[in-house]
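User: Could you check the structure of this?
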Amino acid sequence: MIFDVDTRSSDSPLVHSIWRSRSASGGTFISTAVSQWEMVITKQRGKITLSLRGPETQASPAPIPAEAEFFGVTFKQAVFMPHLSKSELVDNQIHLKESAKNAFQFLGHTWQFPTFENVDTFIDRLMRANFLSFDTVVEDALRGHTPYLSPRAVQRRFLYVTGLTYKTIQQIERARHASSLLQSNLPIVEAAYQAGYFDQAHLTNSLKRFYGQTPAQISNHTQLHSDVFFQDTHSS
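Assistant: Sure, the predicted structure tokens are below.
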């Protein structure tokens, strides 16, 4: 079973996208590798939880909360929390549960849970309180600009800001690009070429690692993306 997902853009320069969905009976889904991190707010049976999750370096099964409503904020790669090591989020999640009526504790402060409609204001408050920052060196490097720092210094900057190496981000984004090409019905061989893979075997290994499926499976529209699609286990 596929659940509908609403997405919208954001006025915040820190945010890549904002999405929301809801689940029925629960189950599992394939959580694909992503080079970005996100904040997810889940409301289930009257309880609210804010989760910080990702980046993810490989595809893996993940649970779907039953009878829940949730929405997420996907941040740009160059966005980070100065008071929280990004390495703590790689292939991991931190859950912040409700500590008072519609509020939670985080790094010594009390925050009201945001909604899908006002989450941009919430992000702005985090930024003004120096809980969110944007690294221009990482952003420039991702855009292909040569930063003024040495390669070693840039690598350290990437690990601190993103939790990943520059090479890992490139590999994940290449796989994402290849998946998009395949979902647009491009032949596998042509998708491998356009995405910059040496051959079809390298494409297959990459997609199995980062997306949990083969190019043929993705071409047949069976791929489920962790950011927007969820699969009920009873349907398989």
